[in-house]
Design brief:
Chain A is an alpha+beta fold. Chain A contains 20 helices and 22 strands. In chain A, strands 1, 2, 6, 7, 8, 9 and 20 form a 7-stranded mixed beta sheet that branches. In chain A, strands 14-15-16-17-13-18 form a 6-stranded antiparallel beta sheet, with no helix packed on it. Chain A is globular, with a radius of gyration of 26 Å. The mean pLDDT of chain A is 92. In chain B, helix 5 packs antiparallel against helix 6. Chain B is of the alpha/beta class. Classes of the chains: A alpha+beta, B alpha/beta.
Chain lengths: 624, 451
């Protein structure tokens, strides 16, 4: 049987890629080591978080599955950063580790054009630098036009605890032993990365009276733009907060030589994430800190494991026991799973195009941890784009490339492809230059049009979006057309709300611009029968109009450079006067536009000037 | 290619006239913002227009502005040329104003590059330009690095680090919202930190402008009643230092009578003609003229006659002089003392006899002392010495002030942060560094986070 698209790996990237491809009508195979581990959450039991939560909204706006699936499987949800302004708010949910994968598998199974198989992929069929299919460990060949690799941490995975090292993936699954070597053979640069996960503790052995409770929000929230919340607000499961103690730190310091990371054991070569240091790393680097904060996060309603967030380590089991028991509330804790570090192979991401297609092997796409990222959301975002672009390629259409001012997913992919990575890449709000534009509330306004264009958003969902736009415009018009005058009553109201009194009439639109006046106050002057979502959108648009305008202007400047395409066949060695370091970097990354070229580290604005002159001179018609 | 660029087109140094060239789609509109005269947006192309360059109503210089609309210009873009009066200080001031109003300082060779890109010049010429662009960029790059050596870059770095500290703390609060053991930076906590940064920026700007004075010339006025010996003092100074007497006429502005180079530092001696002319006329005019001159000057040499009693005008001028850097010269010490020195509420007193050429060394030493010239010669100059850096720092300061305003207006932190971030970007531009990498490094090295 031949397929149009084969997706290798059933994690968060693989699920999105397979769904996008199949939903776009292409005959798709999802092949995975173990069907029971599809959409598994091997690390933290949560979806979303700062920046990541916005990615989930973007996935939903584009017609991906993660948001919908998280809504089905969440046991607690909250809006983070609600006091810090509109640009940085993001949803985070505790997702049930049983329900989430179960619901995803159900969706996959109910999707037309999608077949799911078990198998271990060890090689690719490559002819003339073009992928033609996959080869399984028993040498079975399966042909396809396009292959999407979403293998996560399973390439040559090694699990490390203390001084032991075992060749296996999460849950003791078998990893792929040869695929990364074969990719290297085909000319790809492979790097080794590392990450870790903390202990799971038996809920029944924790003394919760010594912990601090962390609750979900008391308003209903969903990731998806089209769904009503399906959980009970009062039945949300809390998380709990605990702290390390002096004793914990002492145990760690005394046993540092036993940690595979600090002891130099196992010759660990992988590079670990800077933003997720192990607890031994934290204790060493921040020696003056008296305590470190840890979260107890429930993994599921259906079993008793509690995830000990913040305590990832590669200490041996006996030391881990001591460490855990030194924490207040966990004195008698029973460890159900020990913390471990995992080392794995990844492809250096600058070898991809912005479409996520490989530059060396045609029709090969990659997404997720294999590209050096970390996090379920980052993986899913890439998976969705890889799936969409693989399908678009089959259809002979241009790829969907999200710009840095359009989506965090765009920032993520551009960073990977343009800058490369040093450690596993996590999205942070600080990586986005236009974050006032990339908000959680407006993900649909930014991306739904694309979702509809590529065919993943049906007419019903699309009309919801059009309707939302219409309503937003209506409200703005109403606020613009309605003025209040300085009557005694009005001024009294303003005074009560610490707002300066009026001397002349003012439109409600302009009144809302005042920081101390919110939409609720405006409703005092006019009846507005619109959903909260609509009014919120209008309020942000009006209140931050100046800054949004400025961000848009900045973005436009960037786009102009972005639209200056660089021909693929350009030979940088022929350009005089570009600094040699810049030349080398340009040759390596082969940027698609002047804008992308400017973001490469080591390339200076003066190099870009020279490059633009060269382009103008030698490619007169193309660069216009 | 879409921004509007500006640069001084004439060679630096003292010339009768300097030309500042502005090119790009907004050039006419930008120049118009700082021009007082006809509305340049409405004048015909290829016309010369008379008027003033102004900064908030204050006249900076009397100028001729040539307006040339695209495509018949050197760059084939809208171009404006400002003809102003020679002096470096004025010319740079105008350039600074242009930058503050939306121009970008042109890269070396950029006008020519634009001319080429807009197909005004041919390929052969362009090849040559490419070489120039390159060599000049490399040179200006190393120049930029050199000028930021030592203390100066330290100052900017310190500011940058302070801002980065605030920023990374805010970012951590945003990206790790639930880590309660990291201090949550609220607007209240940021405000004093920003106020501190603001004051430091103001200081650097002030020092830089002073530094610029030292490098580009200290405008020095010799003030005094008729017959106290101003002219002889001037001649003595000029003679002593074998000064180049330039006496550039042709402006309605200050006339530089002469230049003295003192320990490598230039004193521009301003014309005191205004006062000399009144020698035989009514004295009040003299006072008025003196006061005008004091306003324009950086350093005042206030000359009194040892042989005469203090006049009322002198008492009046004295008060004005005290607002500036000044040296009190009591001349004609070879004659009988009639001056009531005890009535003088002045410092930096030098006793001279211009007739006998006495006291001139003491005077020079005093000037050196006031400007710490020796110190400056030996030490690294802790100021920004080019228009670009100063303009960038001023922009950075504006952004900090904006952030402060937003805090006072109770804007949320992510909005407040936008201006701080941009301010930091400007500082990085001065230093030639990459903002984003900086921030991430700061973030990961200073905060303890993890899974």
């Amino acid at each position: 049987m031949n397929y149009e698209i084969i997706v290798v790996g059933g994690g968060h990237a693989g699920c999105e890629a397979a769904l996008a491809s199949a939903r776009k009508g292409h005959n798709t195979l999802l092949i995975t080591g173990n069907i029971n581990n599809i959409a598994d959450m091997p690390c933290n039991p949560s979806i979303g978080g700062s920046a990541k939560g916005i990615v989930v909204r973007e996935i939903d706006a584009l017609g991906g599955e993660m948001g919908v699936n998280a809504d089905k499987g969440l046991i607690q949800i909250k809006m983070l950063n609600s006091g810090k302004g509109p640009a940085v708010q993001a949803l985070r949910a505790q997702a049930d580790k049983i329900t989430y994968p179960k619901e995803m598998l159900k969706t996959l199974k109910n999707t037309k054009n999608l077949e799911i198989k078990e198998g271990m992929v060890e090689d690719l069929i490559i002819e003339e630098n073009k992928v033609k299919g996959i080869i399984l460990e028993d040498n079975t060949k399966i042909l396809s036009e396009i292959v999407i690799l979403t293998t996560g941490t399973y390439l040559k995975a090694d699990i490390m605890v203390g001084d032991t090292r075992r060749r296996e993936g999460p849950h003791g699954e078998r990893p792929s032993n040869h695929l990364s070597d074969n990719l290297r053979k085909y000319g790809l640069k492979i790097i080794r990365l590392k990450t870790g996960t903390p202990q799971r503790i038996d809920k029944n052995s924790i003394d919760f009276t010594k912990t601090k409770k962390e609750l979900g929000d008391n308003v209903y929230r969903t990731f998806s733009f089209d769904r009503k919340a399906s959980y009970d607000i009062d039945k949300q499961v809390p998380c709990h907060l605990v702290y390390t103690t002096e004793e914990t730190h002492k145990i760690i310091r005394e046993n540092l030589n036993k940690s595979s990371m600090y002891g130099g054991l196992n010759d660990v070569t992988g590079v670990g994430p800077r933003y997720c240091p192990s607890i031994e790393d934290k204790v060493v680097r921040f020696a003056d800190k008296e305590r470190h904060q840890l979260f107890l996060e429930p993994e599921s309603l259906y079993y008793d494991d509690i995830y000990l967030q913040g305590f990832s380590t590669s200490m041996p089991y006996d030391v881990q026991e001591k460490m855990v028991h030194s924490i207040k509330g966990l004195e008698n804790a029973k460890i159900l799973k020990y913390a471990y570090a995992i080392e794995y192979d990844a492809i250096y991401p600058t070898q991809m195009k912005l479409s996520l297609e490989n530059k060396i092997i045609e029709n090969l796409f990659t997404a997720g941890q294999i590209n050096g990222t970390s996090g379920y959301e980052e993986a899913a975002g890439q998976g969705l784009i890889a799936g969409i672009n693989a399908a678009l390629k089959l259809e002979g259409k241009d790829p969907l490339i999200l710009k840095r001012n359009e989506a965090y997913i765009g920032v993520l992919i551009d960073d990977l492809v343009t800058k490369g990575i040093r450690d596993p890449y996590r999205l942070l709000t600080s990586r986005a230059e236009y974050r006032l534009l990339l908000r959680s509330d407006n993900a649909d306004l930014r991306l739904r049009e694309y979702g509809h264009q590529v065919g993943l958003i049906n007419d019903e969902r699309y009309n919801n979006y059009l309707n939302k736009i219409k309503k937003i415009e209506e409200v703005k018009e109403i606020l613009n057309n309605n003025k209040i005058t300085p009557t005694e009553e009005v001024n009294k109201f303003l005074e009560e709300h610490n707002s300066s009194i009026l001397k002349d009439g003012i439109s409600l639109y302009n009144l809302l611009k005042r920081t101390e006046i919110n939409m609720e106050n405006i409703k005092n002057f006019i009846e507005l029968n619109y959903e909260e979502e609509i009014l919120n959108e209008v309020e942000i648009d009006i209140k931050y109009e100046g800054y949004i305008k400025k961000a848009n202007q900045e973005a436009e400047k960037m786009l102009k450079l972005e639209n200056k395409k660089i021909p693929k066949d350009i030979d940088y060695s022929k350009i005089k006067n570009i600094a040699s370091e810049a030349k080398q970097k340009l040759q390596e990354i082969n940027p698609e536009s002047l804008g992308q070229a400017l973001r490469i580290s080591g390339v200076n604005p003066s190099d870009i000037s020279i490059l633009s002159v060269y382009l103008k001179r030698n490619y007169k018609n193309e660069s216009k | 290619m879409d921004d509007t660029i500006a640069a001084i087109s004439t060679s630096s140094g003292v010339g009768a006239i300097s030309i500042i060239r502005v090119s790009g789609k907004d050039s006419i509109q930008i120049v118009n913002k700082i021009f007082k005269g006809k509305n340049l947006n409405n004048v015909k192309t290829h016309t010369i227009n008379y008027g003033y360059i102004v900064e908030k109503e204050k006249k900076i210089d009397e100028v001729l502005v040539t307006v040339m609309k695209a495509p018949k210009t050197f760059t084939a873009e809208d171009t404006v040329e400002i003809n102003c009066h020679g002096g470096i200080i004025t010319t740079k001031k105008i350039l600074e104003l242009l930058i503050l109003n939306g121009c970008r300082l042109a890269e070396p060779g950029e006008f020519t590059k634009r001319a080429y890109l807009n197909e005004r010049i041919d390929l052969l010429e362009a090849e040559a330009v490419m070489d120039i662009i390159n060599s000049k960029t490399e040179k200006s790059l190393s120049l930029a690095i050199n000028q930021l050596s030592g203390n100066t870059s330290n100052l900017i770095n310190k500011l940058k680090e302070k801002e980065l500290k605030i920023l990374s703390n805010i970012e951590v609060n945003i990206d790790y919202p639930e880590y309660e053991d990291i201090e949550v930076l609220t607007n209240d906590k940021i405000l004093p930190k920003l106020e501190e940064i603001k004051e430091e920026m103001k200081d650097i700007i002030k020092n830089s402008e002073e530094g610029k004075l030292i490098k580009e010339g200290i405008n020095t006025a010799i003030i005094g009643r008729p017959n106290v010996g101003k002219s002889s003092l001037l001649n003595l100074l000029l003679e002593e230092e074998k000064a180049i007497v330039t006496d550039i006429e042709g402006t309605t502005r200050d006339i530089i009578e002469g230049k003295i180079v003192l320990n490598g530092i230039i004193l521009n001696i301003l014309d005191t003609a205004g006062i000399r002319k009144t020698d035989n006329i009514v004295e009040e005019i003299g006072v008025k003229k003196s006061i005008e001159l004091i306003d324009k000057s950086d350093l005042i040499l206030f000359v009194l006659n040892n042989n005469e009693q203090l006049t009322e005008e002198e008492m009046n001028i004295m008060e004005k002089v005290k607002e500036k850097k000044y040296i009190t010269i009591i001349n004609k010490c070879d004659l009988e003392n009639k001056l009531e020195i005890e009535k003088l509420n002045l410092k930096n007193i030098i006793y001279m006899s211009t007739l006998n050429k006495e006291g001139i060394i003491e005077l020079k030493n005093k000037i050196i002392e006031i400007y710490d010239l020796e110190e400056i010669e030996n030490n690294d100059m802790t100021y920004l010495n080019n228009a670009r850096s100063i303009a960038l720092l001023k922009e950075s300061l504006n952004l900090v002030e904006n952030a402060i305003k937003n805090i006072k207006n109770a804007f949320p932190i992510d909005i407040v942060e936008i201006d701080i971030k941009e301010s930091c970007t400007k500082l990085n531009e001065i230093l030639g560094e990459n903002y984003n990498e900086n921030l991430l490094n700061e973030l990961f090295s200073n905060f303890c986070l993890g899974k």
